[in-house]
Structures are given as C-alpha cells and as structure tokens.
Amino acid sequence: MIDKTKLALVLAAPLALFGCPSDDTGDDEIGDTETETETGDGDGDTTTDDTTETAETTETAETTETDPDTETDTTETGEDPFVFADDPPENYERVDRMGMPAIATAVIMSKDAYNMANPADDVNLDFVGEIAASVTGLHAALDDDLLGVPAVPCAPNDCLMQAGPLVIPDTLKIDLEGPAGFPNGRALPDQVIDITLAVVLLDLTVPGQDAATLANFPLNPPANDKEFLAEFPYLAEPH
Questions:
Q1: How far is CA 235 from the centre of its chain?
Q2: What confidence tens digit (pLDDT) does each residue in 53-84 have?
Q3: Residue 192 sits in which domain range?
Q4: Gyration radius of the chain over CA positions
Q5: Is 197 in contact with 219 (CB distance < 8 Å)?
Q6: Would the CA dihedral through 91, 93, 98, 104 be positive or negative?
Q7: Distances (CA, A) of 204 to 144, 152, 177
C-alpha cells in the first residue's frame, strides 16, 4: 500500500526547488523588458538603468482614387492651333461652282476653265459656244423619242433663247414676288432635272406643253419613297 504522505512530499519537492513556471511573468507586463544594474565603486552610489524596448510596427496604406467624373482644369499654353489664312481673295483660284443643276455637268466640256471662271463674267458669253454645241447634240439624239411621247421639241436655237435666262449667269435665282418652286428656289419634291430638260428640249409655246411636261410623265421617280415632313427638318425619316 502506497503511503500518501510520502507521495505528496515527492511531488512537492520539485516545486519548492524550482518554483512555478507561471510566476516569471506578471499580468501587467507588456512587450519585452530588459533591466541592467550597475554597482558603483564602493562610495555607496548605485546607478540602475532600466531600458524598456517596445516593438511597434505601424502600417498605413492609403490609396486615393480620382473620380473619373471629376474634371481637372488644364491650362494650355503655346500657339493657337487654328491658324486662318488672311491672304487676299485674288491669290486664290475657284475650283468648282454649281448654279443651275446639270449645266456644268451636262453641257460644258471645258469644266476646269468653267469652274475657275467667275459667274459674274458669264454675261461675256465665253461658254455659249460649248452650250450651243451640247444642246444641238441632245436634240439630234432625242428629238425622235420626244415626238413619240408625244411631245414637241424646239429648234436648238429657240431652245437656247428659251433656256438662256436660266443658265446665264449660271446662278440660283430668287424672286421673292414670284411663286416658290424651281427654278425660283427649290422645294424638296421638285423634279429639277425633268424641268431643266423640258426647258432645254421642248417648245414651251405649244398649248398644253410647259416646264412640268416631262416631270408629269415622269422621266425620273415621281416622288421620294418616304413622304417629306411638313416641319423642320422637312426631310423624310431615316429608313
């Protein structure tokens, strides 16, 4: 039988010799503490330096993002990116002009010279010879077909006199006291080419025959495939 008193003494002996491991550190200790003690030279003065080292690490991560909707003022310096020439007009040459539809395209052969010319100089009749030759060629090619419509063509010289006021000078003309519509302005539905051909090819003095005769056939589509609008922007809806 084991003696309980002797067993208790055996178990208590190591504790008495070495102490409790948990007694080395107090409840209020923070970090690691080192203590250095220096003893004076015998005069009774003793200096004790206590050095406490505390390891602290602070990390701060700050990220600043700019709102993409925020506008930043930018100041630009330097030369103006837009430089406009201020040379006098006589230093330039006209490269294109278009007044009455199809005139420069259909009856003028020397197109570069015509485009460079000033419409104010058309009264000099510099290009009448070309216009007359082209009109004569059109009648030679089309008069028989016109008679079969039936329509009455005009003699080439009579047609030149008939169309002359429209093409010389070659400009768009507006008479505010006259009815609106081609050739006095131009509405979107106007059959411009059919009207121009009628003036150049048909005898408009014949009863029942006028500038709208070919437009009434018509030679071209009679109307836009979508109805034009009665208000701005007047053009048909995209389709």
A1: 21
A2: 444 444 544 545 555 555 555 556 677 788 88
A3: 90-216
A4: 53
A5: yes
A6: positive
A7: 17, 9, 23
* Weakly modelled stretches of the chain, pLDDT under 50: 1-2, 4, 6-8, 10-18, 20-40, 42, 44-58, 60-61, 63
The token pair at 77 is 């310096």
**Is residue 225, in this structure, part of any structural domain at all?**
no
Q: E-strand spans in 17-174? A: 32-39, 46-53
What are the backbone angles phi and psi of residue 89, rounded to the nearest 5°? -55, -35
Name the domain count of the chain. Answer: 1
Q: Is residue 224 part of a domain?
A: no
